[in-house]
Design goal:
50% of the residues lie in helices and 10% in strands. It has 7 helices and 4 strands. It has a two-stranded parallel ribbon with strand order 1-2. Strands 3-4 form a two-stranded parallel ribbon. Helix 2 runs parallel beside helix 7 and helix 5 packs parallel to helix 6.
């Protein structure tokens, strides 16, 4: 994405309909981030570079920038040797999040009642579930979004997560089953 933007002179020209859709996503994402911060310690862990988060916010979701500046945003990706194949890096990516989640949880130096991970991959779910070994009295939960959703599905995922976050973040195990986000029409 950064390369595409750089080739376009550093600006992103999006159709007005996409800008409107992104504005709605931005509203919900802003509410979700604020709610996460209100409920407790919040951090963003990415397998991408740390530059990806502010870059994306600047070009697509600029109203998130002030909130993101107050949340630790870290990359789980270690410095990799140049000779490492892409396939090997992909296989290792899942363990990067686990290691980073463990480092960050231990750095808080507190007993957690509940840890919630929100993400679109299995790496986040695996990482948060492995925290149970470190914090055996802690309830660990994962909200898994669909990988590469369309903008309407993403909007609904964020909206539903926000609507249910108090219950999700409750230290008691959830009593309801897995629900799928319905694909909504435009």
């Amino acid at each position: 994405m950064e390369q595409i933007v750089a080739r376009q002179g550093g600006t992103v020209k999006l159709p007005s309909s996409v800008r409107r859709d992104l504005s709605v996503i931005e509203d919900h994402a802003l509410d979700l981030l604020r709610k996460c911060c209100d409920l407790g310690s919040t951090a963003i862990v990415t397998n991408s570079s740390t530059n990806w988060i502010p870059f994306t916010a600047k070009h697509y979701l600029p109203r998130l920038i002030p909130v993101l500046e107050s949340i630790p945003c870290v990359s789980a990706r270690p410095q990799l040797p140049d000779n490492l194949s892409a396939q090997a890096a992909t296989c290792m990516a899942s363990s990067w999040k686990t290691v980073k989640f463990q480092e960050m949880a231990c750095a808080y130096n507190t007993d957690f009642d509940c840890i919630v991970s929100i993400g679109d991959g299995f790496a986040e779910r695996t990482a948060v579930m492995e925290l149970r070994d470190i914090f055996p009295k802690c309830t660990c939960k994962a909200v898994r979004f669909i990988t590469q959703p369309n903008i309407y599905v993403l909007r609904d995922e964020i909206r539903q997560t926000l609507a249910n976050l108090d219950e999700i973040a409750d230290e008691e195990p959830l009593s309801f089953g897995v629900t799928k986000v319905k694909r909504c029409s435009q």
